[in-house]
TrEMBL record:
Keywords tagged on the record: Signal
Keyword Signal: yes
Transmembrane segments: none
The UniProt record lists the keyword Signal: yes
Signal sequence coordinates: none
Source organism (scientific name): Adineta steineri
Lineage: Eukaryota, Metazoa, Spiralia, Gnathifera, Rotifera
Protein name (database record): VCBS repeat-containing protein
InterPro entries, A to Z: FG-GAP, Integrin_alpha_N
Pfam families given in the database record: FG-GAP_3 (PF13517)
Length: 171
């Protein structure tokens, strides 16, 4: 197992490759946008290699790094999450049932959640915005089938309204 961390003070992510004996190589870093805050790991392009999604709170965007399978990554591809959005949390799932992973982002300052839909090859095109509620300041998002109907749902933790909002998929 390896470890990936967001280094918000130095605007990069760090990768610690594991030896399998509870020890790791020194950190290798990859530049991100400003203020990387949250990351998620998934195989976004179906090549059996792990890729990394990073939220950059100061730039209101996310970075996608496609993995090479040897601990290195391609240059980041950047996707906007909205103007002055401050994306605090990222997760992934197939929200439109097209067998391609999508990215979901909790935007703190914008008080919304954005889903970027996968277009294949680790690329993302269309997006959909869901307003959580004015002043909610969502800071975390998780994905799961919360009502056991085989449809992917998501839950958002909100700082401003001090609550958890669950959005169930209906189609």
């Amino acid at each position: 197992m390896d470890i990936a961390v967001a280094n918000s003070g130095t605007n990069n992510i760090g990768i610690f490759l594991g030896f399998g004996n509870n020890s790791f190589l020194n950190q290798t870093t990859f530049a991100t946008g400003s203020g990387p805050w949250s990351l998620a790991v998934a195989d976004l392009n179906n090549d059996n290699r792990l890729d990394i999604i990073v939220s950059n709170i100061n730039d209101s965007n996310i970075s996608v790094f496609l993995g090479s399978g040897n601990g290195s990554f391609s240059n980041q591809t950047v996707y906007s999450t909205g103007i002055s959005a401050e994306p605090y949390s990222v997760a992934y799932g197939d929200f439109n049932n097209d067998a391609l992973l999508d990215i979901i982002v909790a935007n703190y300052r914008a008080s919304n959640v954005v889903i970027l839909f996968g277009a294949g090859g680790g690329r993302f095109t269309d997006s959909k915005v869901y307003l959580v509620s004015y002043g909610s300041f969502p800071f975390s998002v998780v994905v799961g089938d919360f009502n056991n109907d085989t449809k992917l749902d998501f839950a958002v933790a909100n700082y401003g309204t001090d609550n958890l909002k669950i959005l169930l998929q209906t189609c």
